[in-house]
Design a protein that fits this description.
The structure holds 2 protein chains of 2 kinds.
Chain A lengths: L6 H28 L4 H7 L1 H24 L6 H21 L1 H7 L4 H18 L3 H7 L4 H4 L10 H10 L10 H11 L4
Chain B lengths: L2 H7 L6 H9 L2 H15 L15 H26 L5 H9 L1 H6 L7 H14 L2 H12 L5 E4 L15 E5 L4 E5 L7 E2 L10 E10 L2 E11 L12 E5 L12 E5 L2 E4 L9 E2 L5 E2 L9 H30 L20 H36 L6 H28 L2 H4 L6 H13 L4 H20 L10 H5 L4
The chains are: A mainly alpha, B alpha+beta.
């Protein structure tokens, strides 16, 4: 089937890729074992491919679960739109990060890649207005975030400056290391 | 409120509360969580007078112990106020998740007591053992940990060296560490906090080794806290993160424990030393699966959502360079490169949250099936929990690092909260099964599944797709 930029195609591509990686590594292991090699050595020989197959399986699982939530009828259309864009971004982002496997194992072909990259940029743009609302919806209290950079009021610089005042070195205008080391050093005429 | 950030809040086009409820699992759960935050996290007693980063290593530990104890007193107050009993969820939320990390930034030495010691007693103890030990553990009359990993042995538990020889004359097990590499290494709270541990050791009886089994061992005197005779114990030293967790080492010099201290829900040793095999050797996977499932939500999704919140808000305040010459410095979230650093991780934290809910439900249903003796879905749960733990902790560490870089030099400061988040998440990549080992465990299941597909067998839900796509080449 020709590639189309939509969620069902993404899900299918993830499954095709996971299936392809699992099939390839299993066939390689089976063939080598059939030739008389010790199974455990064959397992070790192909372990990097085995890791890739497991990763692809896990990623497909995460994409599928994210998609499933979109079919929840209790979700309002506006939230469904936002989550839909995030789900697509999640799937597109990891597809492009692992493009080689998708080109080998799914129905994505080299000419499709440019449109997928464009799709990623348009998703970033689509999500942009909702970015702060999304993280606000995580509903993490300032006391939990515990970071001057991320406080709800956004008073980053004031909070950073206040944090600097908590450094024990700022409790005295001159630290004792001056008398002990720095002063003799500065006067030593090296 | 910063003006730029306030403007951003006006741009959203969905109902925030609806998403909050969805992520929490319902409006009621949101309410409960907020109540816990109000009661525990906003308590001024938990506020640091001096940031922990400026304390000495020893003082950091003492502060973690002080706050952990305080937390338990508060839990009791909370239960009295709510007229509710203890619940594992409450302890998990307070000790293993977001709330715990807020109160005790660098981890708590009590975490394993609730996250592993108690669940193992529940999952692997007989009814009598549960009746005896769980009450003591719930009331914190004893403080436990879970000692599996050894200095020379990690995820491969069949390679563990600690031995437990049964002595039928005295009806006791003799626990022994035959080599330095057999010393237990890394369990949280083991260093100077816990006085009991569940210890995994190779069981020998009637001259035969029966593999790894779990034993409850007293480590320290309940009155003086001194290590008991034959117990060599201490803490392992400073780490990249989690420095409040008090991870320890433990060696045994022929330490005797009563026969009743072997957890015997599945396998048993009778008085005369006769070994009664477990109906399935996979039943002992329960605690490990539980922790892996908990790590996906409690560590990976939690810390990633914190990191991305910090970095996104910062990006709406921070101004830098110019996009169009002469138009002034825009807020950095306007840059597409910045969006690329942030938005995929907002998506990832939601993906992890959704997946963790799904797998938590699966864990609960498989566990109740196990109680009925049905082990069919255990391999599938094991395989998916392994890969999810590996993938989510690795993604979270990568995402947190990306968020740190998105906040420049300010994110490099410890007060930004990125270093602590990174330390906690990278630790989770390593503990409860090093990630590569976990991927390989999942791939073993996948290879079997592929063979089964080729033989025309019907697949379980998480690998059903192999049936649909197996024809395609």
């Amino acid at each position: 089937l020709p590639w189309t930029n939509d969620l069902p195609s993404l899900v299918s591509a993830y499954y095709q890729t996971a299936t392809g990686l699992i099939r390839d590594v299993t066939e390689k292991v089976d063939k080598r074992v059939a030739k008389g090699h010790i199974p455990e050595d064959v397992w070790n020989y192909y372990s990097n491919m085995l890791v890739l197959a497991a990763e692809a399986h896990g990623r497909a699982f995460l994409v599928q679960r994210f998609c499933d939530i979109l079919s929840n009828k209790e979700i309002s259309p506006s939230l469904r739109n936002v989550l839909g864009a995030l789900c697509e971004l999640y799937a597109v982002y990891w597809l492009l990060k692992n493009l080689g496997h998708f080109l080998v194992h799914s129905n994505i072909r080299v000419p499709d890649v440019e449109s997928i990259m464009d799709w990623q940029d348009s998703l970033l743009q689509e999500i942009r207005p909702n970015a702060v609302s999304l993280v606000d919806a995580f509903d993490i209290a300032d006391e939990i975030l515990d970071s001057p950079l991320g406080a709800w009021d956004g008073n980053v610089y004031e909070r950073l400056f206040n944090e600097a005042q908590r450094s024990p070195l700022n409790s005295m205008p001159v630290d004792e290391s001056f008398e002990k080391y720095l002063k003799p050093f500065l006067r030593s005429n090296l | 409120v910063n003006e730029d950030l306030q403007k951003e809040r006006g741009k959203g086009n969905f109902n925030l509360e609806e998403l909050t409820n969805l992520l929490d699992g319902g409006a009621e759960k949101t309410e409960q969580r907020r109540e816990l935050v109000e009661f525990f996290v906003k308590d001024p007693d938990f506020k640091d007078k001096i940031p922990v980063e400026y304390l000495s290593y020893t003082d950091r530990y003492r502060e973690a112990v002080r706050k952990s104890c305080l937390m338990f007193y508060k839990i009791k107050d909370y239960q009295e106020k709510k007229k509710s009993g203890s619940s594992v969820e409450l302890y998990q939320a307070l000790l293993g998740g977001m709330l715990g990390s807020a109160v005790i930034k660098d981890g708590t030495p009590f975490a394993l007591h609730y996250v592993m010691f108690l669940p193992t007693l529940m999952g692997q103890g007989t009814v009598e053992q549960q009746a005896y030990w769980i009450g003591k553990a719930w009331n914190c009359q004893i403080l436990g940990t879970y000692a599996q990993t050894e200095l020379g042995h990690g995820t491969y538990i069949r390679g563990l060296e600690t031995t437990s020889h049964y002595d039928p004359d005295n009806e006791e097990f003799i626990l022994h560490s035959p080599t330095l590499t057999s010393y237990k290494w890394w369990p949280g709270g083991l260093g100077h906090s816990a006085n009991y541990a569940i210890v995994l050791a190779q069981l020998h009886t009637k001259g035969e080794c029966h593999g790894i089994h779990a034993f409850i061992v007293q480590l320290r005197d309940e009155e003086t806290h001194m290590p008991l005779p034959g117990i060599k114990i201490g803490e392992i030293g400073c780490k990249l993160g989690m420095n409040g967790v008090n991870q320890g080492y433990l060696g045994f010099d022929k330490v005797r424990v009563p026969r009743q201290n072997m957890l015997m829900k599945n396998a048993k040793v009778l008085k005369d030393g006769t070994y009664v095999k477990s109906p399935s050797d996979k039943l002992t996977y329960g605690t490990m699966i539980f922790v892996r499932v908990a790590v996906v939500r409690g560590i990976a999704a939690t810390y990633l959502s914190k990191a991305v919140t910090i970095a996104t808000r910062y990006s709406c305040v921070r101004r830098q360079s110019e996009i169009r010459p002469g138009e002034g410095e825009p807020i950095i979230i306007e840059y597409r490169t910045q969006q690329y650093k942030l938005f995929p991780w907002i998506a990832a934290s939601i993906a992890m949250n959704i997946a963790s809910t799904w797998i938590w439900d699966m864990y609960n249903s498989v566990t109740s099936e196990l109680e009925q003796g049905d082990l069919d879905r255990l391999p599938e749960l094991h395989a998916i929990s392994c890969v999810l733990k590996a993938l989510c902790t690795s993604d979270a560490a990568r995402g947190i690092e990306e968020c740190r870089k998105a906040t420049g030099g300010h994110g490099y400061m410890t007060c930004s909260a990125f270093p602590a988040a990174y330390g906690m998440t990278t630790a989770a990549e390593t503990y409860e099964g090093e990630n590569t080992v976990l991927y390989l465990q999942t791939s073993r299941y996948l290879m079997k599944a592929w063979h089964n597909v080729q033989n025309g067998q019907s697949m379980s839900p998480t690998v059903k797709y192999l049936e649909r796509h197996s024809e395609r080449k």
